[in-house]
Amino acid sequence: MYSKEELHNGLNTFIFGKKIFTYDSIDSTNTCAKTLASAGAEEGTVIIAEYQTAGRGRLGRTWQAESGNNILLSVIIRPKLEINKIGLLPFFAAVGTAQALETAAGVRFECKWPNDILLNGKKCCGILLESSFQHNVLDYAVIGIGVNVNQKSFDEDLKERATSLRQEFGREFDRREVFQHIMKSLELLYSEVKNGNFMTTLNEWKSRTTIFGKQVAINQAGERLRGRAIALSADGGLVIETPDGRKICYAGDVVFTKES
Ligand code: BT5
Questions:
Q1: Which of 63, 74, 150, 157 to mutate to test the pocket of ligand 1 (most atoms within 8 A of CB)?
Q2: Closest protein CA for atom 36 of ligand 1
Q3: Residue 69 pLDDT more than 70?
Q4: pLDDT averaged over the chain?
Q5: Phi and psi at residue 59, to the nearest 5°
Q6: Which residue's CA lies nearest to atom 25 of ligand 1?
Q7: What's the pLDDT tens digit per position in 75-85?
Q8: 75 lines ligand 1 (CB under 6 A)
């Protein structure tokens, strides 16, 4: 377990990671971050844990990560955003993290809609963004980031879809360094994002995705949509051209279909 001092040592940021809470084991860093944010914790506060007993994914799913080998963190932000831009925050988190992993590993990572980061087609990072509003104004958002760093293997049900930096590069990564890269990349992008400017974020995200032009299938609210992914909507949805016209998806998992 890295101490707060070690995580701070060499961290070259003003906001992200200025305050860090470390845990050996916790239910979920996102749950903890939401409690702290509701109690007024300042922007940039990080909760980082070696292990989560109830790590969460989107849509009620779970995040599984071995103790001591990965990065499991949440960071609190309080941008003054209009409500229609909140859906763009996961792209900010994904791009910031992808750039950090690229600095650490020296290769390009892929972004998959809405907020996965892939390496050689397998997921090495998941992002869970949760937000809270007061009278239609964003009070805070919690960015939860799980990066598979030094984990050597995954359970049977995950191993076809999940990978770690260690599995792909055949060497151990310094988690402290990766953590600091994540803080730095997020902070750099945040100078635009906090003012509602997502231009760099979206351009960077688009340059790392392969989805556009492909045939996809996606389950949304019990409906299975099929069609060609053509664009992102202004609020972060995936625009799909279906036989019944254009539809926008806001949640769900994209599967590339045969015709791609
Ligand atoms: C996500 O959800 O990918 C968001 C994961 C966010 C995890 C971080 S860890 C720190 C913070 N605190 C939390 O409690 N959560 C955040 P989703 O797109 O729903 O993907 C979840 C699915 O990915 C699961 O249902 C599994 O199929 C798969 N999965 C679970 N653990 C994985 C792992 N370590 N690597 C790759 N895939 C995984």
A1: 63
A2: 162
A3: yes
A4: 95
A5: 50, 40
A6: 61
A7: 999 999 988 89
A8: no
